[in-house]
Amino acid sequence: MESSIMSYERQRMEMVKTLIKQYGVRNPRILKAMRETPRHLLAPPHLRSEAYHDHPLSIGRGQTMSQPYMVAYMTEVLKISDTDRILEIGTGSGYQTAILSQMAKWVFSVERIKELSMEAQKNLTEMGYAENISFKVGDGTQGWVEHAPYHVIIVTAGSPRIPAPLEEQLADNGRLVIPVGRRFHQDMTLITKRGHELETTRKIGCVFVPLIGKEGW
Ligand code: SAM
């Protein structure tokens, strides 16, 4: 037992070294959160040995736990501060949620598949991360209007377009990151709200599972 705990910890340090050396991730708050979060506890038990590998993992229901680099990349472009209120669309395994919860004031996380949301809620509560997280089961393309506006919105599924409710629920100077494009290939897209204007920047290419909902696929 002890040796497998040690080995997960070593694997986690190696994962973070790869993020720094291979991908140039620099933000110390992201690196700290990723060094400290036991990602294997959020992976399905039969895939725990792969939890620190640099690829997505299947979490059932046709969904995935995102590649660690993608988690770090999306978090980095959002320039999160500890006073931010964040809306996350696509709770999935809860790993990205756990990272965000350590970097921001509050995380509001929406997932359309009830079983995934319940599993993530249970795990994040047991791991002690849930104190500044609110969960909802529903169509995240509609946002979560009751708690808007948000300083940061992160969408962890690929969309054919930017859902209008998410733009509307973004605070002034707020940042929204979302993979936008075709079903099997998207561009990571960063939107910054400046008054009534939206600045849009296309970043790296990526492949995410589809954002399914009224304003998605
Ligand atoms: N960050 C998560 C992780 O690492 O585990 C990513 C999970 S996966 C790439 C994307 C998630 O978005 C899936 O769990 C999927 O069910 C969810 N999803 C898709 N469309 C959604 C929608 N309209 N509202 C909320 N969640 C949605």
Low-confidence stretches: none
Give me the secondary-structure category. alpha/beta
Work out the count of structural domains: 1
Distance between the termini: 44 Å
Q: Which homologous superfamily in CATH is the superfamily?
A: Vaccinia Virus protein VP39
* Overall geometry: globular
Helix count equals 6
Question: Helix coverage percent of residues?
Answer: 25-40%
Main sheet properties: 7 strands, mixed
What value does the average pLDDT take?
96
Percentage of β-strand residues: 25-35%
> What is the CATH topology classification name?
Rossmann fold
Radius of gyration: 16 Å
CATH class: Alpha Beta
Bound compounds: S-adenosylmethionine
- Strand segment tally: 9
Strand order across the largest sheet:
5-4-3-6-7-8-9
The CATH architecture designation is 3-Layer(aba) Sandwich
Description:
The protein has 217 residues and is of the alpha/beta class. It has one domain (54-206): Rossmann fold (3-Layer(aba) Sandwich), CATH 3.40.50.150. Helix content is 29%, strand content 28%. The chain has helices at 2-21, 28-36, 68-77, 95-101, 114-126, 164-168, and strands at 57-60, 63-65, 85-89, 106-111, 133-137, 150-155, 170-181, 186-194, 197-206. The structure holds S-adenosylmethionine. S-adenosylmethionine (SAM) is lined by residues 63-66, 89-90, 92-93, 95-96, 110-113, 116, 139-141, 156-157, 208-209, 211-213, 216.
